[in-house]
TrEMBL record:
InterPro entries: Ac_transferase_dom_sf, ACP-like_sf, Acyl_transferase_dom, Acyl_Trfase/lysoPLipase, Ketoacyl_synth_AS, Ketoacyl_synth_C, Ketoacyl_synth_N, Malonyl_transacylase_ACP-bd. Residues 10-416 form the Ketosynthase family 3 (KS3) domain. The lineage of its organism: Bacteria, Bacillati, Actinomycetota, Actinomycetes, Pseudonocardiales. SUPFAM superfamilies: ACP-like, FabD/lysophospholipase-like, Probable ACP-binding domain of malonyl-CoA ACP transacylase, Thiolase-like. Keywords: Phosphopantetheine, Phosphoprotein, Transferase. It comes from Pseudonocardia tropica. Pfam families: Acyl_transf_1, KAsynt_C_assoc, ketoacyl-synt, Ketoacyl-synt_C, PP-binding. Residues 898-977 form the Carrier domain. This is Beta-ketoacyl synthase N-terminal-like domain-containing protein. The keyword Phosphoprotein applies.
Length: 987
């Protein structure tokens, strides 16, 4: 979204994302319910704001306050406690609201970095600045950047790296609606492709309350009563709202949800009226008329008007008269109301409150009743919204007005969103849901929010919810994901949240997981293997069909022996027949591996046990699907055609111990054959040969206290008894167009790692028939993978790898658990790999019908960190409270300890002084910028703090916020101070 979409500028604008906090409502849905319930939010003055004792009349008038206006998740945005405490809380509210609005629009906020997205913020007061900038002696850099109208918009652009216009707008009470109009203008001109428009208002001092009272504008009970005979003045309120705007053509092309369409708008001034703050009826009518004209809409086409409606008797009468000038001759009156009856006059945020209410009403085709409104407006062409009203079918238009105290008037014309038929999703397939957080403790909160969304989503749309989560909830440092069948998603998310409560997550590594793929050998097959996966996983189903096409019927003339039918048909042919089992296992492994490859997984190494090496080499790029299918089919058929009578014996001991126990028994002797078939590790090997020889050997082993088990097999695989199949396999192997390996292959044929570029030729595949499976040697070459992923119908190699001691510490994942499979196993593997850092190409998982945006819960921010102000003896000081999370440094990757010593303590003390973090919680691997919220200005302050401890100046590179860890800084300070180590203890 960094460039123009090519659909052209101009035309209507779509509201595609909304987030808000208003009195009594923490989000968009709570606000809507508040409107439907007709609640009024005016309440006594919060004592944390001020005491009305001794203040002029009006200071104690009730106000609609926000709950928890002091809460701010500073760690999510990488801000130190000191900086967060210095910021105007209006900036804090806007940051969190903007993030959630972008999520609601169907994009990951970080994905807009570098784009021309613009930010337009309407606000008419910055009382925080009034409180904190009046004492020059207490000025800090953070107080400077934490205040000011422009910074409210600029901070959003900075934190999200948005490169479009970024501005604050102050036209008094019309500020936020003017901001929306400017954002629409930027979109229509083609200057930007996405715009955020916002309004915010917090009441931190009684100044305006006193002003309204002295001007005769204040309602004594703090309640606005718009357009009512009982109207007696303004009731004040607080709030923040952000809308995300796109050109309608772009929004529809992208499949975005559209709340409402802004057809046009206008902004104009009252000019000279009978007073600077007095409204002008004719100017108000003119701005509405201009907005209608620009929208191509006649007054009679407007069904509902969200008016300014402050509840001042003179102001409301003038506004109604202006509307009557436009609507007076229409046969069906326009419905008129004002949100101020519910939440009060939000001043700079008043327009955005009215806009959000109107957008929700148009989307849901229901207009809530207007609280406090008169039952008879006594104006031709207008009717009061005294009851909730269902909107008629077809396109419905609405107007939204907002008038500034100094005469700047704004009006927008909106319409219902176009009806777009959204396809139903795939009903029965397993899916993946993801979420993320910038902090470790935030992950569980957001997993629980996603669980609630999954519970409310019909199973047929679960995949669409999953797709939306992959688009919106990506790009954050800590990841969580689950894979499950549709009906199990909420349960799996609940289980994950509980696990996160017990075991804090670690950040996904930037390099992603190092994966070793393991392909199981013959013996893991069973009737109906992976049938559940065929039913529940479309990518696997598709790739299995490709393999089945390449293999064809495994018995000529019998279509039921096509692999895809063989695995799911009833009754199925004998899957243990070697001629069926080996091609079927290959197909299963190929489909699993290709599914993961299509999602973006590039393993570091592959390994296949016996016949599994054919699948491993194919996934590594040495064989085409068609060549591999020919090889595995001929191999299985040739081995199946050999005379029966051979057997295999697994021994719970290593090869050296077995050789010592058997002496020279191994090898051909008279009419007996006994060969080492597989070296599976220090506690497991397999012998293969004639049955009579194996019976004798079993007695020998028992005499030396070695346990063994007879395997149920049709032939003595990997022994000299397989030699008659060599020529058939050679004939095919000679024709293979073998290509260089693209991924290293830990070969169980050679017991070595064949590097990328090696070419396993004819002798490799021929020698595999009679030679032993050198699994233990091959496993030793796996290196240090972070994950092993076993491809096959049930896990076999995972335990064998563990038994060899290879891949120690790797997370073991299996794509097939055996007959207990639910069909969600591949989804679970994908979810875990994504959680651990794999950047998945989700188009390889979700079908086009599922790539449909669905609503998701907004990010759940940490509510425990609080930042407010206090007054001491007439002075005002900003303090960060000691609430949980406020001054605690975030968990880092490994929680490395901090080096000890006096200089280390001095560095930690300086970090605490500059940032506000509790030094006791700062880890040695904490990065100054990412984890502690430092920027270049703070780094220079830190240098000043440390200067008395160093003999030479600090190297600026040692304070680079995004590169320096706390341990690095301590080491550098020691070096600069000329510290020496005495007796092994740092000074």
């Amino acid at each position: 979204m960094t460039g123009h979409t090519g659909t052209g500028a101009g035309g209507p604008i779509a509201v595609v994302g909304i987030d808000c906090r208003f009195p009594g409502a923490r989000d968009r849905e709570e606000f809507w319910q508040l409107l439907l319930d007709g609640r009024v939010t005016a309440a006594p003055v919060d004592p944390r704001r001020w005491s009305a004792d001794g203040l002029p009349d009006g200071a104690g008038t009730p106000i609609g306050f926000l709950d928890d206006a002091d809460a701010f998740d500073h760690r999510f945005f990488g801000l130190s406690p000191n900086e967060a405490a210095a910021m105007d809380p209006q900036q804090r509210l806007l940051l969190q609201c903007a993030w959630r609005a972008l999520e609601d629009s169907g994009v990951a906020p970080r994905s807009l970095a570098g784009s021309d997205t613009s930010v337009h913020v309407g606000m008419m007061s910055s009382e925080w600045g009034t409180l904190h900038l009046s004492d020059p002696a207490a000025m800090t850099a953070h107080r400077g950047s934490g205040n000011g109208y422009c910074m409210a918009a600029n901070r959003i652009s900075y934190h999200l790296d948005l490169r479009g216009p970024s501005m604050a707008v102050d036209t008094a009470c019309s500020s936020s609606l003017v901001a929306v109009h400017l954002a629409c203008t930027a979109l229509r001109s083609g200057e930007v492709d996405t715009a955020l428009a916002a309004g915010v208002n917090l009441v931190l001092t009684p100044a305006l309350s006193v002003f309204y009272a002295q001007a005769g504008l204040a309602a004594p009970d703090g309640r606005c009563k718009p357009y009512s005979p009982d109207a007696d003045g303004i009731g004040r309120g607080e709030g923040v709202g952000v809308v995300v705007l796109r050109r309608l053509a772009d929004a529809l092309a992208e499949g975005r949800r559209v709340y409402a369409v802004i057809d046009g708008g206008a902004v104009a001034s009252d000019g000279r009226s009978n007073g600077l703050t007095a409204p002008n009826r004719f100017a108000q009518a003119a701005v509405v008329r201009s907005a209608l004209h620009r929208s191509g809409v006649a007054p009679g086409d407007v069904t509902v008007v969200e008016g300014h409606g402050t509840g001042t008797r003179l102001g409301d009468l003038i506004e109604l008269a202006a509307l009557g000038d436009l609507h007076g001759d229409r046969p069906t009156p326009a419905l008129v109301g004002s949100v101020k009856g519910n939440v009060g006059h939000l001043e700079g945020a008043a327009g955005i409150a009215g806009l959000v209410k109107t957008c929700l009403a148009l989307q849901r085709r229901l207009v809530p009743a207007s609280v406090g409104i008169g039952h008879d407006l006594a104006v031709a062409g207008l009717a009061p919204l005294t009851t909730a009203t269902r909107l008629p079918a077809g396109t419905v238009r609405a107007g939204v007005s907002s008038f500034g105290l100094g005469g700047t008037n704004a009006h927008l014309v909106l319409s219902t969103p176009p009806r777009v038929r959204r396809p139903g999703g795939t009903g029965g397939d397993a899916t993946v849901l993801v979420t993320g957080s910038a902090t470790a403790d935030g992950l569980a909160r957001n997993v629980r929010a996603l669980a609630a969304a999954a519970t409310a989503t019909p199973p047929g749309h679960a995949a669409q919810l999953g797709w939306s989560s992959t688009v919106v909830k990506s790009g954050l440092r800590f990841r969580a994901a689950v894979g499950a069948a549709p009906g199990r998603l909420a349960d799996e998310l609940d289980r994950l949240a509980r696990r996160l409560d017990d075991t804090p997550p670690t950040p996904a590594g930037p390099a992603g997981p190092r994966v070793a793929l393991l392909c199981t050998g013959q013996g893991s097959q069973y009737a109906g293997m992976t049938a559940a996966l065929v039913r529940c996983c479309r990518p696997y189903r598709d790739h299995l069909a490709d393999a089945a096409d390449a293999l064809g019927p495994l018995r000529d003339g019998d279509p039921d022996t096509r692999v895809d039918r063989l695995l799911t048909g009833r009754p199925a042919p004998d899957i243990d027949d070697t001629g069926l089992a080996q091609p079927a296992l290959f197909a299963v492994q190929y489909a699993m591996g290709t599914t993961l490859a299509a999602l973006g997984l590039r393993p570091r190494i592959v390994l296949g046990h016996s016949v599994g090496e054919i699948a491993a080499a194919t996934l590594a790029g040495a064989l085409t699907l068609d060549d591999a299918a020919r090889l595995v089919r001929v191999r299985g058929a040739a081995m199946s055609a050999l005379p029966t009578g051979g057997g295999m014996l697994t021994v719970r001991a290593g090869v050296d111990r077995v050789r010592a126990a058997l002496g020279d028994t191994l090898g051909a002797r008279d009419d007996e054959v006994v060969d080492l078939a597989a070296d599976n590790g220090p506690q497991a090997c397999v012998l293969s040969g004639t049955v009579t020889a194996l019976d004798r050997i079993r007695e020998q082993l028992r005499a030396t206290a070695l346990d063994s088990t007879v395997l149920t097999v049709s032939h003595a695989f990997h022994s000299a008894l397989m030699a008659p199949a060599i020529e058939a396999v050679r004939a095919v192997a000679d024709t293979l167009a073998v290509r260089p390996l693209q991924i290293p292959l830990a070969s169980t044929v050679t017991g070595t790692v064949l590097p990328a570029g090696a070419v396993p030729g004819t002798e490799h595949w021929v020698g595999q028939l009679t030679g032993p499976v050198r699994f233990a040697e091959a496993a030793a070459g796996l290196g240090d993978p972070t994950h092993t992923v076993e491809l096959g119908p049930r896990p076999v190699l995972t335990a064998l790898v563990r038994g060899t001691g290879a891949a120690a510490g790797a997370t073991a994942l299996s794509c097939g658990p055996g007959p207990s499979a639910t069909g969600a196993e591949l989804a679970e593997v994908v979810a875990r790999l994504h959680t651990d850092g794999l950047d998945v190409d989700w188009t390889g998982w979700f079908e086009p019908v599922d790539r449909v945006p669905r609503p998701l819960p907004g990010h759940v921010f940490d509510p425990t960190a609080r930042f407010w102000f206090s007054r001491d003896a007439g002075a005002t000081a900003v303090t960060a409270t000691t609430s949980a999370g406020t001054a605690t440094a975030p968990a880092t990757d490994t929680a490395a300890p901090v080096p000890r010593g006096d200089l280390a303590a001095a560095v930690l003390a300086a970090i605490g002084s500059v940032s506000g973090h509790d030094p006791a919680t700062v880890g040695g691997d904490a990065v100054l910028g990412r984890d502690l919220g430092y920027d270049s200005v703070m780094a220079m302050r830190l240098a000043d703090e440390l200067e008395p401890h160093v003999a030479a100046g600090l190297d600026p590179a040692a304070l680079a916020p995004d590169l320096t860890t706390v341990a690095d800084l301590i080491d550098h300070v020691r070096s600069a101070a000329g510290a020496r180590t005495r007796g092994g203890v740092p000074t």
